[in-house]
UniProtKB/TrEMBL annotation:
Residues 591-600 have a biased composition (Acidic residues). It catalyses: choline(out) + n Na(+)(out) = choline(in) + n Na(+)(in). Residues 584-610 are annotated as: Disordered. Keywords: Glycoprotein, Ion transport, Membrane, Neurotransmitter biosynthesis, Sodium, Sodium transport, Symport, Transmembrane, Transmembrane helix, Transport. GO terms for molecular function: choline:sodium symporter activity. Its main location: membrane. It comes from Menidia menidia (Atlantic silverside). Coiled coil: none annotated. Belongs to the sodium:solute symporter (SSF) (TC 2.A.21) family. The chain crosses the membrane at residues 20-39, 63-82, 102-120, 141-171, 177-196, 203-221, 251-271, 283-308, 345-370, 391-411, 417-440, 447-463. Homooligomerizes at cell surface. Interacts with SEC14L1; may regulate SLC5A7. This is High affinity choline transporter 1.
Length: 610
């Protein structure tokens, strides 16, 4: 008996040491690449006179096809994406039918590329909030910053929390130490290199995920404890078929969640950060389409691993007779499959790669939050005269602050996932309809924007959030109650389940409120029914004043920029593949002359959005 225990302990210690070494190697690789990217591009944009702060935010707008394709794909493909996809395929009662992230986010990138990438990139914006401040003013921009910031911070915290839990189970190291170390590495190289470091580490991140998972899948599939996944997809063997199904009563919930992923995946700074760093508007569209394909490709091994988990007799494995779903560990099915169904060397290559990828996923959200704060809050709302050096230092400080905040939340808040669910919903119901309005609907103003903000927020929060134990005060049609185990206390509690697609309805109501209240305010002020002196937001009567527009928006003239008069941003020209879309010799002579004329200092568009 004693020798067996000693032998098992020795094997466990060996596995832990191998696991720590593998993770350390991949962490070091990510860190080295991040620092190298910062050093390689430290003088980027200087020849063109680009501000250093803008280079940090959008990388000098010269991200190439190879790096651009990877970093755009990494907008959504990270640790949360691959773990979440495997989890839903594995979970009984859900299965592949409910693993909506791959198709949802892929379509999100397609829709973003078709309709949003071109106008945003063509006008030369630096962050996603620029068009809101241009049309609705700095105060409204500040309000819209709140849900955008919440989404980025809670997303980073959720990623770090999941990483800590995974590492603590797999290699038995302290969860706090793993979270803090991961966050420090991501914060450090983001501080040093900005978007360049984020983009280049994304290449390593996706390569690690792809190779690490695909090496592991054949070994897991051929493990004696695993049944044929083609059989378990349609027949019950160890649990319900992993193909999954959608009950008729849950159809509207499925549609609501899919719309949330497809449309709610667009209005994020992490996406527009990549769009605005592309060398041209056409290029931004191409990268979006490439990333959509990348999202689907990167989901395949996760789907297979989820299916393998659902097809395994866990009693034959080192994991034990009780399956992960019964141990409340379904969210870690991917690392569990890698650890218990693959040989040790394969297991830890996969686990090390996935861990490094999860850590690398947090960097872009932290950079996005600091970019929006430094430009749209600090510079445009409070310190219009701030120097470029000052903005750079504000960005560095906020990268550290927001990174520290996300780390703290990952360590002490048990409801970080619930907070992210709620904040991502608010991004969908508040920011998406306003982005639609500001880019494609003429006549909206700040009064409509405020009304839309309130409508969206009240209708969404009114539906409640079970994960946060937030009860609803609006009971939508078809609501039911059910008993559910609390994720922290483990006690059974009664929750209200909304079966009405209230998130999408809230988004549509917010959009209509913006349009209706904007035109109502315009009519009331311009017809004289309300005195001009009550236009306290300077949104209708006073918007024609050049002085007020100067103070409250990004541009120096009072007219809105229409899609037909986009301010060109001259890309850096090169003979690389990236320049194929912008080479002068591929353009008509008239187009080249127009670009030179419009980009000259005398052009009326030259100073816009600088």
């Amino acid at each position: 008996m004693t020798p067996d225990i000693s032998e098992r302990t020795a094997v466990t210690m060996t596995i832990h040491v191998e696991g720590l070494v593998a993770i350390a190697v991949f962490y070091l690789l990510i860190l080295v690449v991040g620092i190298w990217a910062a050093w390689k591009n430290k003088h980027s944009g200087e020849a063109e006179g680009t501000d250093r702060s803008e280079t940090i935010m959008v990388g000098g707008r010269d991200i190439g096809l190879f790096v651009g394709g990877f970093t755009m794909t990494a907008t959504w493909v990270g640790g949360g994406y691959i773990n979440g996809t495997a989890e839903y395929v594995y979970l009984p009662g859900y299965g592949l039918a409910w693993a909506q992230a791959p198709f949802g986010y892929a379509l999100s990138l397609v829709v973003g590329g078709l309709f949003f990438a071109k106008p945003m990139r063509s006008r030369g914006y630096v962050t996603m909030l620029d068009p809101f401040q241009q049309l609705y003013g700095k105060r409204m921009g500040g309000l819209l910053f709140i849900p955008a910031l919440m989404g980025e911070i809670f997303w980073s915290a959720a990623i770090l929390s999941a990483l800590g839990a995974t590492l603590s189970v797999i290699v038995d190291i302290n969860i706090k130490m793993s979270v803090v170390l991961s966050a420090l590495i991501a914060i450090f190289y983001t501080l040093v290199g900005g978007l360049y470091s984020v983009a280049y580490t994304d290449v390593v991140q996706l390569f690690c995920i792809f190779v690490g998972l695909w090496i592991s899948v054949p070994f897991a599939l051929t493990n004696p404890a695993v049944s044929d996944i083609a059989v378990t997809a349609v027949k019950q063997v160890y649990q319900t078929p992993w193909r999954g199904s959608i009950n008729k009563s849950d159809t509207w919930i499925w549609i609501d969640n899919f719309c949330l992923l497809m449309l709610g995946g667009i209005p994020w700074q992490v996406y527009f950060q990549r769009v605005l760093s592309a060398s041209s508007a056409t290029y931004a569209q191409v990268l979006s389409f490439l990333a959509a394909f990348g999202c689907l490709v990167m989901a395949v091994p996760s789907v297979l691993i989820g299916a393998i988990g659902a097809s395994t007799d866990w009693n034959q494995t080192s994991y034990g007779p009780i399956p992960p779903k019964d141990r409340e560990q379904a969210d870690m099915i991917l690392p569990i499959v890698l650890q218990h169904l693959c040989p040790p060397f394969v297991s830890f290559f996969g686990l090390g790669a996935v861990s490094a990828a999860v850590m690398s996923s947090a960097d872009s959200s932290i950079l996005s939050a600091s970019s929006m704060f430094a430009r749209n809050i600090y510079q445009l709302a409070f310190r219009q005269s701030a120097s470029d050096r000052e903005i750079v230092w504000v960005m560095r400080i906020t990268i550290f602050v927001f990174g520290g905040l996300a780390t703290w939340m990952a360590l002490v808040t048990g409801t970080v996932y619930g907070l992210w669910y709620l904040s991502s919903d608010l991004v969908y119901v508040i920011i998406f309809p306003q982005l639609l309005s500001v880019l494609f609907v003429k006549g909206t103003n700040t009064y409509g924007s405020v009304a839309a903000y309130l409508f969206g927020m009240v209708l969404r929060i009114g539906g409640g959030e079970p994960y946060l134990s937030l009860p609803p005060f609006i009971y939508y049609p078809g609501w039911t109650t059910e008993m559910q185990k609390h994720h922290i206390t483990g006690e059974m509690e009664e929750i209200v389940k909304q079966k009405f697609p209230f998130k999408t309805v809230s988004m549509i109501a917010s959009f209509l409120a913006n349009f209706a209240f904007s035109h109502l305010a315009k009519y009331l002020f311009e017809s004289g029914k309300i005195s001009h002196k009550y236009d306290f937001l300077d949104a209708v009567v006073s918007r024609h004043s050049g002085e007020i527009m100067d103070k409250t928006t990004l541009v120096t003239r009072s007219n809105n920029i229409g899609l037909s008069e986009m301010a060109p941003v001259k890309p850096r020209l090169s003979v690389t593949l990236a320049a194929a879309f912008t080479r002068r010799d591929t353009l008509p002579t008239e187009t080249v002359e127009e670009e030179e004329e419009e980009s000259s200092p005398d052009s009326p568009h030259h100073d816009e959005l600088r």
